[in-house]
């Protein structure tokens, strides 16, 4: 009798990968059109969001500066400078707007009207007057401003910077 043949490991072969039973390529041109439309709309949306983000850079920088000013209020040595810088910050924001009108010469009622016109919610009637006081009052008058009033003024300023309307 002959001995049985034992298979050797050298005889093993790699099996070919099977072909999938279906193709990943869309079978109709409609799916391709739909894909292109979705990609196009997504690209337009992305470009629009990027442009808006670029246009709102002045707003982000102003909010960062406002946060720095609010932190400076707690230090008695920097409080006066922070109070004096608030009106200038709001004026710079207004000048940095995309449709920047001629706001550099506005003051008093005209400045108040401009701020109200661009605000989402109405501002107090004396808001521009308070800003004028912060900018031009003597140091002793600024030292006498109540903490609640300063907090409210900074909160209104932050709200205006975040939500003011800009024509696009």
Automatic annotation (TrEMBL):
<feature type="transmembrane region" description="Helical">
    <location>
        <begin position="28"/>
        <end position="47"/>
    </location>
</feature>
<protein>
    <submittedName>
        <fullName>DUF4381 domain-containing protein</fullName>
    </submittedName>
</protein>
<dbReference type="Pfam" id="PF14316">
    <property type="entry name" value="DUF4381"/>
</dbReference>
<keyword id="KW-0472">Membrane</keyword>
<keyword id="KW-1133">Transmembrane helix</keyword>
<dbReference type="InterPro" id="IPR025489">
    <property type="entry name" value="DUF4381"/>
</dbReference>
<keyword id="KW-0812">Transmembrane</keyword>
């Amino acid at each position: 009798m002959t001995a049985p043949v034992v298979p050797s490991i050298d005889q093993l072969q790699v099996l070919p990968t099977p072909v999938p039973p279906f193709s990943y390529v869309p079978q109709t041109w409609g799916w391709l059109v739909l894909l292109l439309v979705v990609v196009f709309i997504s690209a337009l949306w992305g470009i629009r969001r990027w442009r808006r983000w670029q246009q709102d850079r002045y707003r982000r920088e102003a909010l960062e500066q406002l946060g720095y000013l609010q932190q400076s209020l707690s230090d008695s040595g920097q409080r006066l400078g922070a109070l004096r810088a608030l009106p200038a910050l709001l004026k710079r924001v207004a000048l940095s707007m995309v449709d920047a009108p001629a706001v550099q010469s506005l003051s008093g009622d005209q400045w108040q009207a401009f701020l109200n016109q661009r605000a989402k919610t109405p501002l107090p009637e004396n808001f521009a007057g308070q800003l004028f006081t912060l900018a031009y009052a003597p140091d002793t008058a600024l030292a006498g401003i109540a903490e609640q009033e300063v907090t409210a003024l900074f909160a209104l300023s932050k709200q205006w910077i975040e939500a003011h309307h800009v024509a696009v």
